[in-house]
Write a structure and sequence with these properties.
Length: 341
């Protein structure tokens, strides 16, 4: 599993590769429409391993939907990942509740929220999409549906997560502190929330996306963030492109972030500029809150051009195509741009 320390090293390495110039942002990657497909991109350093799994489907000519489901199951199963899936940190009551959604090229979508005792929420989200007339199932209803579909119920709270929760209980501050990933700014900070959002375009040019998280660590029981909300944590429009988000979900929901990014791309914005505009809307609406939190958007357009933008430094995203399967790109950010200007 990739961790942030490795990411910092990787960043240094990436920066030294002449072909990628100083920073391999989407802005300076050459655009060769049509030549970029298939492609898969996803949030954070753990996206590298997830993309590689998705790539197994894409390189065989498989469907983007199958690729994104398989891809995000990697961090969902990772016992060291405490922000996604089965080893996710619990809520303030010690209960692990998971959120996920999935969307395909036809505008079909499925979602589960605040679901307990099921290790792969993305698979249940897909089953909601394919086997029910509904889009979203929550809580016990989602778990019950998963079991009816033959999925095994299991205890998710790992000894490590339990230990972290018990430590948190000592002070039990019921307003979860947001992590900002830049270790230079916050040495030793603990990452208490992150999400894998993944977008893929298959060889036929069809787009799908998946998004899955355990949400904010030690959240109020029943809290649901942006990640399972279609339009907030994820949105795909096969005519235009797709977008996904990570960070403090409340601010993404308030701005219907991923839908906004896709609509901006429809109006002609590049993926990176669409993400930047969505970040600016969040900051404009709540400037005081924005100073203290992280939100990052990641987007891809129909041609396979991609881009990202975040409020704070520290965001990264992974890219995988036929040229390179393990590219990790540091995201641009509002506060870094402010420092530069
Ligand atoms: N967006 C997630 C949530 O609010 C957390 C994250 O991605 O950091 O639940």
């Amino acid at each position: 599993m990739y961790n942030r320390r490795k990411f910092i090293k990787l960043t240094a390495l990436t920066a030294s590769v002449a072909t990628l110039s100083k920073y391999a942002t989407a802005k300076n990657i050459p655009t060769v429409p049509g030549d970029r497909l298939p492609i898969v991109i996803s949030t954070w350093d753990f996206g590298v391993a997830a993309n590689k799994e998705a790539w197994k489907t894409l390189e065989k000519g498989g469907r983007a939907l199958d690729a994104v489901e398989a891809g995000v199951k990697i961090p969902e199963a990772d016992m060291k990942n405490h922000t996604v899936g089965r080893a996710g940190y619990p809520d303030r009551d010690g209960r692990v509740t998971l959120d996920a959604c999935i969307m395909d090229e036809f505008g079909n979508c499925g979602s589960v929220a605040a679901m307990e005792n099921i290790a792969h929420p993305i698979t249940v989200a897909r089953l909601v999409m394919e086997k029910t007339p509904h889009v979203m199932l929550v809580g016990d209803g989602a778990t019950q549906f998963a079991v009816e579909q033959g999925i095994k119920k299991e205890k998710l709270l790992t000894p490590e997560s339990e230990k972290a929760w018990k430590k948190w209980l000592v002070k039990a501050q019921y307003s979860p502190k947001m992590n900002i990933e830049n270790e230079q700014h916050r040495p030793g900070s603990k990452y208490n929330h992150d999400t894998i959002g993944m977008l893929a375009i298959d060889a036929k040019g069809n787009i799908s996306g998946a998004c899955t998280t355990s949400g904010m660590a030690f959240k109020l029981h029943g809290r649901v963030g942006d990640s399972p909300i279609i339009g907030a944590g994820l949105f795909v429009d096969n005519e235009v492109g797709g977008a996904t988000s990570t960070g403090v979900g409340e601010e993404v929901i308030r701005n219907v972030g991923s839908f906004l990014v896709v609509e901006l791309m429809r109006q002609g914005y590049s993926p990176r500029d669409a993400c930047k505009e969505a970040v600016h809307r969040i900051i404009k609406k709540k400037p005081e809150i924005a100073k203290e939190i992280q939100v990052g958007f990641l987007a891809i357009n129909k041609k396979g051009e991609y881009g990202a933008y975040a409020i704070q430094e520290g965001f990264s995203f992974a890219v995988c195509d036929k040229n390179k399967q393990d590219l990790l790109i540091p995201g641009e950010s509002y506060y870094k741009d402010i420092k530069k200007n």
